[in-house]
Design goal:
alpha+beta, 4-stranded mixed sheet, 4 helices, 4 strands
Amino acid sequence: MMMMIIILIISYTTDQTLHKIRLDIVRLDKTNKEVCLTDTAISNSHNLHSTITETLQKYTALKEEHIRIWQLKTAHIIPLVLSTVGIIPNKLHGSSKLINLRHALYIPKQKAVIPNTCHTVRKVLAEQ
């Protein structure tokens, strides 16, 4: 089975000009003819769903380009979005299943996000 995984893409080249393409992970499976376009983000609690929707809309053109260029059967856009206080949206569970991400990894994700938020709040309060 031949699988190509590209991680941390800075720029992306396609036949057409597509703006604002900066994915975090692209998994291209040439054997099964499928691609998973993964974008990670951390947003505020009140705009989690808008961040997910924006990600899906932003990469739709790229998804169609992949299907056309690589002659793929399926292409998935997977937004991995967490809130700044560690809230996990329901959409993340479905996205995690597509890329075989273990359910046990949610807690380490939350533990990584919360201290950074606390650090930012302390910094802002210290400046006042």
